[in-house]
Amino acid sequence: MSERVHIVEVGPRDGLQNEKTPISVADRIAFVEALIGAGLRAVEVGAFVSPKAIPQMVGSAEVLQGVSHHRDCELPVLVPNEKGYEASQAAGAKLIAVFAAASESFSRANINCSIAESIERFKPVLARAKADGVRVRGYISTVLGCPYEGEIRPQAVVDVAKVLWDLGCYEISLGDTIGVGTPLKARQLLRAVAGHVPMANLAMHFHDTYGQALANLYAGMEEGCRVIDSAAGGLGGCPYAPGATGNVATEDVVYMLEGMGVPTGVDMAKLVAATNVVSGLIGRPPVSRVASALNAKNAAGNA
Ligand code: HMG
Ligand code: MG
């Protein structure tokens, strides 16, 4: 496998949205800069959501404005409704992401409405984005399991994916929000969704709660999926998914891809350095196995 893979780094958003320690806008900008400096070309920088729901994402406008001189990079931000859209446009966002769920209970917990209502909220956002020349990514959460409802039928994911695609999302990112998926299920899901949305327009957004994310990504790549969401250091989780841990770590994804002969353009040493700075700020070591291994190796080398 030597085709390129598109990595969407979500650490500054998905990673930091669940951290208890507040991270300043200046530190968030420095984190994004370090990730771009490491070679990542798509970095999700924040979210225009309710400050009561997710206080960690307050200041996303300043973060976006602080890094938007990187015109060669995709800098997506989350937008749940028209209010968020307006704030994103005031901050100059060129790429936004709406986020739906495959389970009713998760939709209610996360964005306080049913799946159908969330689609109604997205319709004017997508219409305005189209008129404004803003690209829209569509997330679907709980695609391989829900913290409240358990098993999720692939058809439930397909139904939401079709709607988001028909509304004009250019890419559908499939979120295993609580990291319960296994490779066979990930493969079956991708096949089912790819029957309605081209595989080239699907992304894998797998959290690593049960340690299956890399295996799931590999299975998805065998199915032809070439877009991977990941977070530096394996940061994060979802405030509305009790017990869920972070996204698959970008270091681990990069290590796997390079080992498969898939070039990533990412400088691992710089990426681990970016992760280490944030780990210092939040006060715990990276979850990434590769970052931990390289840190231990460097510490031994310096001893
Ligand atoms: P609501 O309470 O139903 O909304 O929340 P509302 O329209 O009734 O407004 C209530 C208050 O929120 C009002 O303020 C609004 O002005 C304000 P008040 O009058 O009470 O002072 N408000 C906003 N403020 C700022 N920006 C906005 C906005 N909209 C309303 N855009 C809402 C609905 C969606 C806003 C809320 O539930 C919310 O913000 N939820 C955040 C959910 C979130 O960010 N979750 C984490 C990201 S999703 C995720 O992590 C999954 C993903 O990674 C994929 C995966 O892993 O599965 C993407
Ligand atoms: Mg997520």
What does this structure look like?
The protein is an alpha/beta fold. The protein is built from twelve helices and eight strands. It has helices at 11-15, 25-37, 60-67, 82-90, 104-111, 115-132, 154-167, 183-194, 213-222, 250-259, 268-282, 289-302, and strands spanning 6-9, 46-47, 77-78, 95-101, 135-141, 171-176, 202-206, 227-230. An eight-stranded parallel beta sheet has the order 1-8-7-6-5-4-3-2. 51% of the residues are buried.
Number of strands: 8
- Secondary-structure-derived class: alpha/beta
Strand order of the largest sheet: 1-8-7-6-5-4-3-2
Proportion in helices? 40-55%
- Termini separation comes to 38 Å
Percentage of residues in DSSP E strands: 5-15%
Query: What's the overall average pLDDT, rounded?
Result: 96
Overall form: globular
CATH class: Alpha Beta
Number of contiguous helices? 12
The set of bound ligands, ions and cofactors reads: 3-hydroxy-3-methylglutaryl-coenzyme A, magnesium ion
The low-pLDDT segments are: none
List SSEs in N-to-C order. EHHEHEHEHHEHEHEHEHHH
Largest sheet: 8 strands, parallel
CATH A-level architecture: Alpha-Beta Barrel
Say what the CATH topology is: TIM Barrel
Radius of gyration: 18 Å
The CATH homology group name:
Aldolase class I
Q: What is the total domain count?
A: 1
SSE diagram, text form:
Elements: E1 6-9, H1 11-15, H2 25-37, E2 46-47, H3 60-67, E3 77-78, H4 82-90, E4 95-101, H5 104-111, H6 115-132, E5 135-141, H7 154-167, E6 171-176, H8 183-194, E7 202-206, H9 213-222, E8 227-230, H10 250-259, H11 268-282, H12 289-302
Parallel strand pairs: 1-8, 2-3, 3-4, 4-5, 5-6, 6-7, 7-8
